[in-house]
UniProtKB/TrEMBL annotation:
SUPFAM superfamilies: Multidrug resistance efflux transporter EmrE. It is found in: Membrane. Coiled coil: none annotated. The keyword Transmembrane helix applies. Keywords: Membrane, Transmembrane, Transmembrane helix. Pfam families: TPT (PF03151). This is GDP-fucose transporter 1-like isoform X3. It is a multi-pass membrane protein. Residues 7-302 form the Sugar phosphate transporter domain. The gene is LOC129926079. GO terms for cellular component: membrane. The chain crosses the membrane at residues 37-56, 83-104, 111-128, 134-151, 158-178, 198-218, 230-249, 286-305.
């Protein structure tokens, strides 16, 4: 195996491991107590992430950039409208995701979050002015059908609460909104993904600090009637996973392509679902599995169709640019 192939394999395996681990860790966190600590968990993840990136940046400056990227944070970043909106959508997605895990099983997580792609398509068409092809719409039909089958079976056969479906939809919406807004913000401000993550984490700390104090979630976390060592170990693991997922996701896209990344994330979801079913010794019927197959098939088809349409658009822009250059040379 050459060096490039090894890096790609390592990035994909790391993403599968860290991303799956984060879901299981967060599930353990929200199950430890009946109290709602969703805001506190996200606040801690933001504080942990911002501090880690700050330390890495400082070490990088001292070692002439040999350790990691040199990140910067200017005052105008903290009051910039795009950055604030990106931070709000990001922390909203993380917060609702924590709440969602209180009401669903990990095995149902893939279906509960499956509407993210649908919201991404709708928001990309509205915010980024991207065209939606017929084949992409057909993929959406498969996803929605799989979502309906999966939700119906989970409610009828396994006692899923309707509130779990609601939070699944809300989480999917904010995840899609965060992805779309951050993409637009990164493009317009010419910042790297890691730089944007650092800014978003920092603004998230500022926004969430008064909220965790007003809601008494910080106080509740400090005086939980559970094993404090176990709780804080899980919390640190959660913060570490949150930071690593963002970095490894960017690395995976850089080493491969957005298409490979989407297929990789859904392969991870399959493994995560299977792990949850076997670990918790859950018995699922044929229609439940059929819903999962429809969702995964729709997402993979969407990734393939979207990739082909992007290549076609890039080719058309290249031809148009070449023709314009030819005309200018003739003049």
């Amino acid at each position: 195996m050459d060096t490039c192939s090894f890096k790609i394999a390592a990035a994909i395996f790391s993403y599968w491991t860290v991303s799956t681990g984060m879901v299981f860790v967060n599930k353990q966190l929200v199950q430890l107590t009946p109290k709602d600590l969703s805001l506190f968990i996200v606040w801690f993840q933001c504080v942990f992430g911002a501090l880690c990136l700050y330390l890495i940046s400082q070490l990088s400056r001292n070692w002439n950039g040999n350790i990691g990227p040199s990140l910067y944070l200017h005052k105008h970043h903290l009051i910039q409208r795009d950055m604030i909106i990106s931070s709000i959508t990001f922390i909203s997605a993380l917060t609702f995701n924590s709440v969602l895990l209180k009401y669903i099983s990990i095995s149902f997580y893939q279906i509960a979050r499956s509407l993210t792609i649908i919201f991404v398509i709708v928001l990309s068409a509205i915010v980024l002015q991207q065209k939606v092809g017929l084949r992409v719409l057909l993929a959406c039909v498969l996803i929605i059908l799989g979502f309906y089958i999966g939700v119906h079976e989970e409610i009828q056969q396994y006692g899923l609460q309707v509130v779990g479906v609601f939070y699944g939809g809300v989480t999917s919406f904010f995840s899609a909104l965060s992805s779309t807004v951050c993409k637009k913000c990164q493009k317009e401000n010419s910042v790297s993904s890691l730089q944007l993550t650092y800014i978003v984490f920092t603004i998230g700390c500022i926004i969430l600090t008064p909220l965790v104090l007003v809601t008494s979630q910080l106080e509740s976390a400090l005086y939980l009637q559970v094993d404090q060592t176990y709780f804080w170990c899980l919390l640190f693991l959660s913060g570490l996973c949150c930071l690593l997922v963002g970095w490894i996701s960017t690395l995976q896209i850089t080493l491969t392509s957005p298409l490979t990344y989407i297929i990789s994330t859904n392969s991870k979801s399959v493994i995560q679902t299977l792990l949850a079913v076997f670990w918790n010794k859950e018995a699922k019927n044929l229609f439940w599995w059929l819903g999962n197959v429809f969702v995964l098939s729709g997402i993979v088809l969407y990734a393939i169709f979207n990739h082909k349409e992007s290549q076609k658009s890039d080719k058309e822009r290249f031809i148009q640019k070449t023709n314009c250059s030819g005309i200018e040379k003739k003049r």
